[in-house]
């Protein structure tokens, strides 16, 4: 049983502003079904940039629903410039705290809000894996931890905890930190050192063994189109082609899997 | 607390009042040490002997001396596994399954770090293990095979007596350990008529208190003790006997045996009523296991496009206790390793709920759940971003 605050319980029991808005001025999304957490945020924004209405739909746990619900309350009636400043910590504070293992729920709320604002300004949503927060307790991003591991040649989780502070809380991220340590020690395969055929065989192997089956389970599929330097061009098919989460699928799942198995420099590009 | 409908009996069970009754005199009244020379302690020793006999009968062992009392199912598993490995230190190959309880799986993870090679057998979509895969996995280096009797999350029963034959045929020296924690009290155990070497049970899953378990060690099987010290449990587990709990476990085993003969069908009927009721009343509910070949008390149902913790929280508000996967996995936020191994689709994986009944479950309680749950699920469906998908399911 999680130690949820009264406020969290109130919001998952009776969430506010549930639903969608027809003709929304901005729609934001974060998470995915596969991850077990997904949030869709709809905003109505008037000519002065004031958010006049906000609604949400969430697939997720109690704290995910509570984070979404309170977020809508925090932004209704506010100017979009003001809302931009809201961080996931603000969401946590407003909820009266979240258990350390559940911090990512507030991160998802923040991401959906960012995505909605970007959508309002007509920008592409940037799902940059470099900014992925590995340790949610100490709010440590992946690129920072990766850098310190490399620079100081860290070999154990204990060393990473001591040097970066990441992993000092709930310990949930230890597996991911371990992965980063392993990655830093792994001799990097230079894609550029292979012939094109070798590259394609290598990448196709990883796609077939670790990626395609997962996508097929959800009715999607993937096809390797081309390889150029560190850029891997793929086409998403089936359910993935029309899925709004395809950016997440590509960046988090496909790209990370290829990076884990082949080279951390790989960039996946959808064509 | 207000109304509680407890359908989480695979997590733990209510201690049967008849068990408490036989235990209570052994705290402040007959508190002697069974190892003492005086009659006051000796009488307590006699009661332990009786309890061992009760556990022996319940597990279907040939001899009472094959039963060792432990503090938990986890200890039974650790004692069996570590105890066997300690004896044959040169052999480093172990075979188990992907769907064992975390208490066993995590032990294998540490053993891998200690230099053991562990093969994890997979399961099919219905949760079954392929006997051929087992046969292929065992070789002359295999020191131990461990397979659970029934899965805690899905309730699926594995034909462990057949598996034991396969293992012994391939390598007679390989020891076979069965984690029977979730089978005990739900199906008849008859270990003497099998080739199983070691079998563990836990008290608190069969209406005894938490903090007591037992391990069956077939006569002739050598197991190094985990706890070294006094001569208790014939040198297999040191430490003064936990007298009241041992007596309680004995009684719980006796009651469970009687219950298996007379009453187990009643629980199966209630489980089936609950399961069929949920599937017919709630369109986005699907059964996460084969219908046949399960322990009679367990049902694992996936509610598509909504998330399990949220369902549990809302059920809890209505006084209904269930679980999403194993309670041990819920702290880690990872979806159930058992359901993932079975290839349950993501749409239902995260929204999977385990209902587990006991001999104390009543029909009125099942009716209450069937009355409340459709409303809860409908409320949560309304929160889901997958309205289109849910509509499509509703239209079917």
CATH superfamily of the largest domain in chain B: Type I PLP-dependent aspartate aminotransferase-like (Major domain)
What is the element string of chain A, with H for helices and E for strands?
HEEEHHHHEEHHHHEEHE
Number of helices of chain A: 10
How many strands of chain A? 8
What is the fold-level CATH name, i.e. the topology of the largest domain in chain B?
Aspartate Aminotransferase, domain 2
How widely separated are the two ends of chain B? 40 Å
Radius of gyration of chain A: 20 Å
**Overall domain count of chain A:** 3
CATH class of the largest domain in chain B: Alpha Beta
List SSEs of chain B in N-to-C order.
Answer: EHHHEHEHEHEHEEEHHEEHEHHHEHH
Distance between the termini of chain A: 45 Å
CATH class group of the largest domain in chain A: Alpha Beta
How is this structure best described in words?
- The complex is a heterodimer of chains A (271) and B (396).
- Chain A is of the alpha+beta class and 271 residues long.
- Chain A has 3 domains: 6-120, Sufe protein. Chain: A, CATH 3.90.1010; 129-185, Arc Repressor Mutant, subunit A (Orthogonal Bundle), CATH 1.10.10.1100; 191-270, GMP Synthetase, Chain A, domain 3, CATH 3.30.300.130.
- Chain A has 10 helices and 8 strands.
- In chain A, the strands form 3 sheets. Chain A has a 3-stranded antiparallel beta sheet. In chain A, strands 6-7-8 form a 3-stranded mixed beta sheet.
- In chain A, helix 10 links the parallel strand 7 (231-238) and strand 8.
- In chain A, helix 2 crosses helix 5 (103-120), helix 4 packs across helix 5 and helix 6 crosses helix 8 (174-185).
- Chain A is globular and about 60 Å long.
- Chain A starts with 5 loop residues before the first helix and ends with a strand.
- The model of chain A is unreliable at 126-130 (pLDDT under 50).
- By secondary structure, chain B is α/β, with parallel strands linked by helices.
- Chain B folds into 2 domains: 5-13 and 263-395, Aspartate Aminotransferase, domain 1 (Alpha-Beta Complex), CATH 3.90.1150.10; 17-259, Type I PLP-dependent aspartate aminotransferase-like (Major domain) (Aspartate Aminotransferase, domain 2, 3-Layer(aba) Sandwich), CATH 3.40.640.
- In chain B, strands 2-8-7-6-5-3-4 form a 7-stranded mixed beta sheet, sandwiched between helices.
- The radius of gyration of chain B is 22 Å and the shape is globular.
- The model of chain B has no long low-confidence stretch (mean pLDDT 94).
- The A-B interface holds A 12-13, 15, 18-20, 29, 33-34, 36-40, 57-62, 64-65, 101, 172, 217-218 and B 305-310, 313-314, 317, 331-333, 335, 343, 345-347, 349-350, 382-387.
